[in-house]
TrEMBL record, chain A:
Signal peptide: none annotated. GO terms for molecular function: DNA-binding transcription factor activity. It comes from Candidatus Kaiserbacteria bacterium RIFCSPLOWO2_01_FULL_54_13. Residues 9-88 form the HTH arsR-type domain. It comes from the Bacteria. CDD domains: HTH_ARSR. PANTHER family: SLL0088 PROTEIN, TRANSCRIPTIONAL REGULATORY PROTEIN. This is HTH arsR-type domain-containing protein. Gene3D superfamilies: Winged helix-like DNA-binding domain superfamily/Winged helix DNA-binding domain. InterPro entries: ArsR-like_HTH, HTH_ArsR_DNA-bd_dom, WH-like_DNA-bd_sf, WH_DNA-bd_sf.
UniProtKB/TrEMBL annotation, chain B:
It holds the Pfam family AHSA1. The lineage of its organism: Bacteria, Candidatus Kaiseribacteriota. Belongs to the AHA1 family. It comes from the Bacteria. This is Activator of Hsp90 ATPase homologue 1/2-like C-terminal domain-containing protein. It comes from Candidatus Kaiserbacteria bacterium RIFCSPLOWO2_01_FULL_54_13. InterPro entries: ASHA1/2-like_C, START-like_dom_sf. Residues 13-142 form the Activator of Hsp90 ATPase homologue 1/2-like C-terminal domain.
Amino acid sequence: MVKYRDGERMLDALGLPLRRTMVRRLQQEGAMSLSKLAVPFKISLPAALKHIRLLEDSDIIETHKRGRVRICVYKPSAFKELGGWLASQSAFWESSFDRLGTIINKRKR
Amino acid sequence: MADVTLVIKRTFDATPEEVFKAWIDPKQVAQWYGPEGFTNDIHEMDVREGGSYRLTMRVPNGDTHPLRGVFKTVQPPTKLVFTWQWQHGEKWGAETLVAVEFKAVGDKTEMTMTHEGFADEKEKEMHNQGWSSSFNKLEKLLS
């Protein structure tokens, strides 16, 4: 719901396995240029840039230009939002299941 | 990377058939989706694989939260899988995936719900499974 929005925006950005692999590489191998990041995927630079923009817009990574090279950096704080999303879903379902238990018991009586 | 999956297990004093029904019967869903005080208007609940559901959750403070999804697996009384998507203003949020499994344990039912943050990968997996089972059939046919 509304306050989980940022978490959901991240989920959307991470919805594509290719973008998750990009993030994982930045996490594990540190900052790198867009062209180096794009190499394993056999995609064009403009295509890679589109994916990177989405990740940047959802605050998972940041990029800056060094001359003609665009450097991509993973943001360590990024997944806190997702933790928030998980916590909110967990609270949602736990309290829903309390009610489910109640109506199941009522029907039995 | 962060594992964006939520797993909750509950045991209910009812048969798997009864618990399964509580997930697909609009009257019951309206009563239990959401925390205490929430109510739900069910607009559509087309319970078959590929069928959609749409509902509006009403929060005690008066806010409304539209929710929608598509049923992916409907296997009464053991398994139910559907997508889950909230509406925020004009836009729809990320599509996530809810899978519920029901297992009889004595005269009770153990329910396991998995809420997976990425709907796409699961779909791909299911797609792959679809293919592998087709290939298995093909193999049998050919042998």
